[in-house]
Design brief:
The structure holds two protein chains of two kinds. Chain A is of the alpha+beta class. Chain A has helices at 14-35, 46-64, 69-74, 77-96, 116-135, 144-163, 374-394, and strands spanning 168-175, 179-184, 190-206, 210-215, 220-228, 234-238, 241-255, 258-261, 268-277, 283-288, 299-300, 305-309, 314-325, 330-336, 341-343, 346-353, 363-370. In chain A, a hairpin with a 2-residue loop joins strand 7 (241-255) and strand 8 (258-261). Chain B folds into two domains: 1-110, Four Helix Bundle (Hemerythrin (Met), subunit A) (Up-down Bundle), CATH 1.20.120; 119-255. In chain B, helix 2 runs antiparallel to helix 3 (63-85), helix 3 packs across helix 5 and helix 6 (163-192) runs antiparallel to helix 7 (200-221). Classes of the chains: A alpha+beta, B mainly alpha.
C-alpha cells in the first residue's frame, strides 16, 4: 500500500471538501429538477424551532463529537473554503442569469434564492461557520476580531435565511382625502392590514428643467452639453450656437403657437429659447417636456441637431398622511423616499404614485414592511463593523505563522 | 452655473502623475518624484472640493465621478505606501494607474449634472461610496503584487516581491469592502424596504467579497502557497472590476437600481 493519502481517508482536505460541495450542488440541482417546486419558507414559530434545533445540534456535536474526523473536518479551512466557493458559485449564477421570483418552475437557475441548491449551500456554510465559531470561541483580546467577523456573518446569514418567511410586505394605494387599509402582496393578493393610512396631500418637486442636444444622425441624446434652465435671461454656448433663454415655465400648456402657465394635470415644463448661430440665420421657439396629454416641442438647430428639453428629474416625493392602528393610536406625519416612518413594527415607505398624472397625481402608493428579525440582522451587521475595525487595527500583524 | 472644466486640471494631474512615475525610475530623482505626486494629490483634492461645491451634491454619482475619486485615492496611496515600504514599482504603478483612470475621464467627458434622485438623497450616500472606492484602490494596488508573483518566473527571478506586502492592503481593502456592504445594507433598508434584494450590483459585490474571503483563508492556512493565493486574488480583482464597471453590460443587470 502506498503511504500517499487516498481520497476519503481521514483527515479530509481540499479534494474531499470540494467533492462534497460539488455533490451538494448536484444533489440540489437534481432535486430541483425532479421536484420543480419553489421551497416554501418556514415562518413563525416553525422557523424559530428549526433555528434553535440547528444551533443546539451544532453545540452538541462540537461538545461531544469534536474528535470525530468528519466533525473536525467541518470546522477546517478546506471545508470553509469549499462552502464559500459553493455559495460564490451560486451567486455567480445569479450574477449572470436574470433572476425572477415568478420564473416558471422548470427554469432551473432563474430563481436560485428559493431553490434546493441554495438551501444546501446555506446549511453547509452555516454548519462550517457555526462549528468553527464554537470551536474557537474565546474572549481573549487576540481572538476578538475572529469572533466579531465569524459570529457577525453567521448571525446575518442565519437571521436572513431563517427569518425570510416572517417578512411581510404589502403595497397600499391611497387616494387623496381617502383612508385605506387593504394592501396587496407581491402576487397581487389583497390583505386587510392592521394599520390604515389617510392621505392628505401628495407632492412631487422637480429639479429645474434641463435642455440637451438631440443628434439626428445617431438618434441619441448627446451626453454633453446640458443646460440648466433654472432662470430666464441666461445664455449658453455650444459649438457655433448661442442660446438665450427668455421665458421658463414649470407648469405649462400649449395654446396655439405659445405656452401659457397652467397648473393642471398634463402640464409640462417649457422654455422659450432664441438661438443665434455664426453665419446663419437665427431661430427661436418653444421647447418642452412631454406628458400623456401633450407632445414635446423641440427646436431645430441644423440638419443634424435639435434642441430638446430633457425629461424632468424629481427631487422629492412627499406624502402627508395620518396612520391609524388597531389599538386606536394615530400618527400624523410626512413620508418621503429614504425616510420611512415606523408605526407598530411596520415601516411605511413612499413607494409610488400615479405616473400618468405626474405632479398632479392624487394617488400615493406606500409600501408597508414588517420584519421581526431586523434586530438580529442589525446585531450581525454591527458585529461585522466591529470586525472590520479590528482588521484596520490588527492588519496581518497578529496572524499566526503556519506552514 | 459656470461650467467647471476638467480638461485643464485633468491634463495637468495626468502629466504630474506620469512625470512623477518616470522620475521614480531614476535613483537620484526619487525625492522630487514624491513631491510631484503630492502636488498632484493636492490639485485633485482642490478639484474634487470645487466640483462638490459647484454641483451642490457629493460628486459620487456617476461612473466618471467614481473614477476621479479612484485616481485621487491611488495617487494618495502611492505616496502613503512610499513612506511605508519604499517600493519603487508600487509607487510607479499606483501613479500610472491613477493617470490611466483620469485619462479615461478626459476621454469620456460627462456633463455636469446637479440632480440627485430622491433614493440617493441619504446620509449613507457619501460613506457607502467613499469606503468602496478606497477599498477598490487598495485592492487594485494589491492586485499588482499578485500579478508580479504569477509572472515572476518569466521576468526577473530575483524580483523583490512577496505576498506579505499585499496582505496588509488586502486586509485594509477587505475591511473597507465589508463596511461598504454593511452601509449599503443599512441604506437599502431605508430606501427600498429591504437590506438585501440580490440586485445585480449587490450580487457582484457579494461575489467579490466572498472571493477575497477565500484569499484571506488560503493565506491564513497556507502562507507558503503564494501562487494559489495570487491566482485567487487575481480572480477576485476581475470580479471587482465586473462589479464596478462591467455590470452595465450584463444582460442580467438591465433593471439594476445601481445603473448610472
Amino acid at each position: 500500500m502506498s503511504t500517499k493519502k487516498t481520497i476519503w481517508s481521514f483527515p479530509w482536505g481540499y479534494g474531499e471538501s470540494f467533492a462534497i460541495a460539488i455533490g451538494l450542488f448536484l444533489a440540489g440541482t437534481g432535486i430541483q429538477f425532479i421536484s420543480g417546486i419553489v421551497i416554501p419558507l418556514p415562518s413563525w414559530p416553525r422557523n424559530v424551532i428549526l433555528l434553535l434545533s440547528f444551533v443546539i445540534v451544532l453545540f452538541f456535536i462540537q461538545r461531544f463529537a469534536s474528535k470525530n474526523p468528519i466533525i473536525h473536518w467541518l470546522s477546517s479551512v478546506p471545508a470553509a473554503i469549499s462552502a464559500i466557493a459553493l455559495f460564490t458559485m451560486l451567486s455567480l449564477l445569479m450574477g449572470f442569469i436574470h433572476q425572477d421570483v415568478h420564473a416558471p418552475a422548470d427554469a432551473l437557475f432563474a430563481n436560485i434564492k428559493f431553490s434546493w441548491m441554495y438551501l444546501f449551500a446555506q446549511v453547509y456554510i452555516l454548519t462550517t461557520l457555526g462549528l468553527t465559531t464554537i470551536r474557537r470561541f474565546s474572549l481573549r483580546r487576540r481572538n476578538i476580531g475572529f469572533l466579531l467577523n465569524h459570529l457577525g456573518i453567521w448571525l446575518v446569514l442565519a437571521a436572513a435565511s431563517f427569518g425570510a418567511g416572517d417578512i411581510e410586505r404589502y403595497t397600499l394605494q391611497v387616494q387623496k382625502g381617502n383612508i385605506q387599509w387593504i394592501g396587496e402582496d407581491e402576487f397581487g393578493n389583497t390583505h386587510e392590514l392592521p394599520v390604515a393610512i389617510a392621505l392628505h396631500d401628495f407632492t412631487i418637486d422637480f429639479y429645474p428643467p434641463q435642455a440637451g442636444i438631440w443628434d439626428n444622425e445617431q438618434n441619441i441624446l448627446l451626453k454633453k452639453p446640458s443646460f440648466s434652465l433654472d432662470s430666464k435671461d441666461s445664455v449658453y454656448e455650444w459649438k457655433e450656437f448661442s442660446f438665450h433663454i427668455s421665458q421658463v415655465s414649470s407648469s405649462a400648456y400649449k395654446m396655439g403657437e405659445t405656452y401659457r402657465e397652467v397648473a393642471a394635470p398634463g402640464a409640462v415644463q417649457a422654455a422659450f429659447v432664441e438661438v443665434s448661430a455664426e453665419n446663419k440665420s437665427s431661430n427661436k421657439g418653444w421647447i418642452s417636456t412631454a406628458s400623456p396629454l401633450q407632445e414635446p416641442s423641440l427646436l431645430k438647430l441644423s440638419e443634424s441637431y435639435e434642441l430638446v428639453m430633457k425629461p424632468p428629474k424629481p427631487r422629492l416625493f412627499k406624502s402627508d398622511i395620518t396612520v391609524y392602528t388597531e389599538q386606536g393610536s394615530e400618527v400624523s406625519t410626512s413620508v418621503v423616499v429614504n425616510q420611512p416612518i415606523t408605526v407598530d413594527g411596520w415601516k411605511i415607505y413612499q413607494y409610488g404614485y400615479d405616473e400618468t398624472m405626474g405632479k398632479y397625481s392624487d394617488i400615493s402608493i406606500f409600501e408597508l414592511v414588517r420584519d421581526p428579525w431586523l434586530p438580529a440582522i442589525y446585531s450581525g451587521l454591527v458585529l461585522l463593523i466591529g470586525g472590520a475595525v479590528c482588521m484596520f487595527i490588527n492588519g496581518v500583524g497578529t496572524r499566526k505563522k503556519q506552514s | 452655473m459656470t461650467e467647471l472644466n476638467f480638461n485643464f486640471i485633468g491634463i495637468a494631474s495626468v502629466a504630474l502623475l506620469l512625470i512623477s512615475a518616470g522620475l521614480m525610475a531614476m535613483k537620484k530623482m526619487r525625492t522630487p518624484a514624491v513631491f510631484i505626486s503630492v502636488l498632484a494629490v493636492m490639485i485633485l483634492t482642490f478639484y474634487i472640493a470645487a466640483l462638490w461645491i459647484a454641483l451642490e451634491r457629493p460628486p459620487l454619482r456617476t461612473l466618471g465621478e467614481t473614477r476621479l475619486w479612484y485616481g485621487f485615492f491611488l495617487a494618495l496611496l502611492s505616496v502613503t505606501f512610499w513612506f511605508r515600504w519604499k517600493y519603487v514599482w508600487l509607487f510607479m504603478y499606483s501613479n500610472l494607474m491613477a493617470g490611466v483612470f483620469l485619462i479615461i475621464d478626459l476621454l469620456k467627458p460627462a456633463a455636469l449634472d446637479q440632480t440627485l434622485m430622491p433614493a440617493l438623497q441619504s446620509v449613507w450616500f457619501v460613506p457607502h461610496v467613499i469606503v468602496y472606492i478606497l477599498g477598490y484602490a487598495l485592492l487594485g494596488v494589491a492586485a499588482l503584487v499578485a500579478v508580479l508573483i504569477i509572472i515572476k518566473p518569466w521576468i526577473k527571478k530575483d524580483l523583490k516581491v512577496n505576498l506579505h506586502d499585499a496582505d496588509n492592503m488586502i486586509y485594509l481593502g477587505f475591511a473597507f469592502l465589508t463596511l461598504g456592504l454593511v452601509f449599503g445594507a443599512m441604506w437599502a433598508k431605508t430606501a427600498w424596504g429591504h437590506y438585501w434584494t440580490w440586485d445585480p450590483k449587490e450580487t457582484w459585490a457579494f461575489i467579490t467579497w466572498m472571493t477575497y474571503l477565500m484569499y484571506i483563508h488560503i493565506r491564513h492556512r497556507h502562507p507558503h502557497r503564494e501562487k494559489t493565493a495570487a491566482w485567487m486574488m487575481s480572480l477576485a480583482f476581475v470580479f471587482m472590476m465586473i462589479c464596478w464597471m462591467g455590470i452595465q453590460y450584463l444582460p442580467s443587470a438591465q433593471n439594476s437600481v445601481h445603473t448610472y
